[in-house]
Design goal:
The protein is mostly helical and about 250 residues long. It folds into two domains: about 1-120, Leucine-rich Repeat Variant; about 145-250. About 75% of the residues lie in helices and about 0% in strands. It is built from 14 helices and no strands. It has helices at about 5-10, 15-20, 25-40, 50-60, 65-95, 100-110, 110-115, 120-125, 140-155, 160-175, 180-200, 205-220, 225-235, 240-250. Helix 6 runs parallel beside helix 9 and helix 9 (about 140-155) runs parallel beside helix 11 (about 180-200). The chain is elongated. This is PP4R1 phosphatase. GO terms for molecular function: protein phosphatase regulator activity.
Length: about 250
């Protein structure tokens, strides 16, 4: 009653390998690109009509097809709601996390948008996997690490101070020592955001421990770039850093 059945059948047939040989070699990519719009038109109550097609596209041998889905999975999650997302999208999302960098970047760019749609217990499972984004197929792909730092600044609000200290702190410190200055600079903002997180939640002990770690790692670093990093962190986070120093030293 929403769209003519023949039209839907034509769309679903776009994943047929024979169509790629006779119609367009990138027809599966076009199908993947249009899928969120088709899902929105049909509504979540008719997701069963598209589920198999989506899974077929998610396992397509062409990384461009999987990349297209990775860039839009957060939009599809909004359309389907939390229950269908947990049941049908999370397994595919997990697969994208282990895919090529060209596919992973699609997930990474909207990591916050996807995680915020999950229940807290399911969301917490990804704390263990965020560290994996630091490692890329090509170490020269610094924009990947830059994007990770940007996303982590947003993701901080989704987790409590203890989880931030136990998991995200390590990633932030690693990125602060990156070889690329652009990555280091956005990471300094991440460090300040973590300090502000501790301050806003009255987690002063965690904040002071983090300050001590920054002092040891950067302020007393034998290399000038480390000491410079500490100066930049102080510059970016004048208020939050001074607040914790005041608590410690009076």
């Amino acid at each position: 009653d929403i769209i003519p059945q023949p039209l839907l059948d034509q769309y679903l047939s776009m994943t047929d390998p024979a169509r790629a040989q006779t119609v367009d070699t990138e027809i599966a990519k076009h199908c993947a690109y249009s899928l969120p719009g088709v899902a929105l038109t049909l509504g979540r109550q008719n997701w069963h009509c598209l589920k198999d097609t989506y899974e077929t596209l998610a396992s397509d041998v062409q990384w461009k097809v999987r990349r297209t889905l990775a860039f839009s999975i957060h939009e599809l999650a909004v359309i389907l709601g939390d229950q269908l997302t947990a049941a049908d999208l999370v397994p595919i999302f997990n697969g994208f996390l282990k895919d090529l960098d060209e596919v992973r970047i699609g997930v990474l760019k909207h990591l916050y948008d996807f995680l915020k749609l999950l229940h807290a217990d399911k969301r917490r499972e990804y704390l263990y996997q965020l560290q994996e984004f630091v490692v890329t197929d090509n170490s020269r792909n610094w924009r990947f690490r830059y994007e990770l730092a940007e996303q982590l600044i947003l993701i901080l609000e989704l987790y409590n101070p203890n989880d931030v200290y136990d998991y995200l702190r390590h990633i932030a410190l690693t990125l602060c020592s990156d070889k690329v200055s652009e990555v280091r600079w956005i990471s300094f903002k991440l460090v300040v955001a973590i300090l502000q997180k501790f301050y806003a939640n009255s987690a002063n002990a965690l904040g002071l421990n983090f300050i001590n770690e920054l002092v040891v790692r950067f302020r007393h670093c034998s290399k000038w770039v480390g000491r410079q990093a500490f100066a930049f962190i102080c510059q970016v986070g004048k208020f939050s850093l001074c607040f914790f120093v005041y608590i410690k030293f009076g």
